[in-house]
Amino acid sequence: MAEGSPTVRRRRLGLILREMREHTGMTGDEVGTAMERSASWVSRIEIGKQGMRIRDLRDLLALYEVNDEKLRSDLEELAREGKARGWWNKYGEAVTGPYSAYIGFEAEASELLSYETVVMPGLLQTEDYARALFSNVHPPHSGDQVEQRARIRMARQALLNRVDPVRLWAIMDESVVYRRIGDSQVMHDQLKHLIELAQLPNVTLQIAPFTAGAYPGAVHSFSVLRFPQAADPDLVYIEDWGGGAFAEGDDARRYHDVFNHLRAAALSPIQSVEMIRRELNAAA
């Protein structure tokens, strides 16, 4: 299993605290007033966007009349772990906002269901492909920014080869295979890399072909993250150029259903690799 992610710990703690608050019948405003904080502070804690000081946690548990010492101790440990720094924090401003949160969740996921409409899935990109991709964004990145973002993308891929690797099921629109990112050598190496990764036992790759016509999920890219602990419910990350957004609960279940429809509409894993191989040979 992956080392504990502070992002996941903050979310788990927040879910527990929200359930406790709802059990008391108190609103976020009422809790904020009692804690001499704002309602937005309560909200940030409950959605896991902000870490918690142990002192604040103890005051909150006292407010909720939580006297179980074992539970209090476990929650304090979650708070401590939630304040830790993830490996991605060393990259500073290159990893901020929703992308930073996504990497944190991804770091502890046991399964990723990824659908891409425009470019190769990040975990399956070569370094040169990632570099070419980051070299063509708006506003433009500096050379150092491009290199830093490419390094981050490569570091994320350690998930595929760790002791207990993440299970990745990636579906791509057929256009992704043909869309040229970088020069011909970059695309050649990228397609070859896809074929090699598809042989890993924890990686399943499918192509949604043009012949499938319109199908659910054809509008935007998204990823469903599933975690090893039942205390961490599924989470969906919806990508956009504005930084992305998260969905959970019923929305996450709907995206999971959409992904199942995509699986049914896509070529089989064997057929998908054959299509990639044909494009690789045609471009040779």
TrEMBL record:
Instruction: Classify the source by domain of life.
Output: Bacteria
Gene3D superfamilies noted in UniProt: lambda repressor-like DNA-binding domains
Q: Which Pfam families match?
A: DUF5753, HTH_31
Where are the bilayer-spanning segments?
none
Family matches, as InterPro entries:
Cro/C1-type_HTH, DUF5753, Lambda_DNA-bd_dom_sf
What one GO molecular function would you report for this record? DNA binding
Q: Provide the HTH cro/C1-type domain boundaries.
A: 16-71
Q: Which residues form the signal peptide?
A: none
Q: What is this protein called?
A: Transcriptional regulator with XRE-family HTH domain
Q: What is the protein's species of origin?
A: Allocatelliglobosispora scoriae
The lineage, from the top, is: Bacteria, Bacillati, Actinomycetota, Actinomycetes, Micromonosporales
